[in-house]
Amino acid sequence: MVEYDHTPVTVDGERAVVVGGTSGIGEAIALGFASEGADVIATSRSAERVEETAAALEDRGADTRRVTCDVTDRESLDELRDAAVDAFGGVDIVVASQGAISRETVLDIDDEAWDRVLDIALDGVRRVTQALAPAMDSGGSIINISSLAASLSMANLPAYSAAKGGVDAFTRAAAKELAPEIRVNAIAPGFVITPQNADVYAEGTEKRERIDERAPMGRVAEREEIVGAATYLASDAASYVTGEVITVDGGFADSAF
Question: What is the pLDDT of residue 3?
């Protein structure tokens, strides 16, 4: 039998910052990293949610700090970076999971709604990278949370789809420029149940039944099912992976339409 060495998929001992890490997929990733042995700062604009998530991180053994952050404000992100450096000495993993959504048609969406979604979901990714990459002095991994909507046509989500398409393009551009020191990848989740949309995807709703019928896995995802992809991309096991958008959608995109 051939013997070989392999790099384990782990973030044990790593220093992570998860922006948008106090709810939804971002919170699941932050808690998952902590359970694997990483120290984690999970941040958002809500001081209450930052406190609740920090307590949950500490319950999992992580060193953390309570830091609020607004991705539309570069000064706020600079303060987040400084707090992470003061706490950990640097950053190994950055996850940009903040998001915004607006449900209007192409003809109905106004400038204010359009600009708000892109400011948070796309420009926010750029600001996170610009602010936090300088703290990754020993290299590391940036993971942007994209969406199936970036590549799959969905009605009434023009700003969200445009923003996530931009995230994919920005990810590839940043990967080329920041290599080889920093790897930059994205995860494009499909339909995922979070506390914020649990009513939309509740069993028996028309949308849930339609997804369950078309998805090869026969169901929507739990947010914890995105954590494995994030852990892989953050780990040294993905040391030769950069500029990629990894779809985690249960096969939906290839079979639904």
Answer: 67
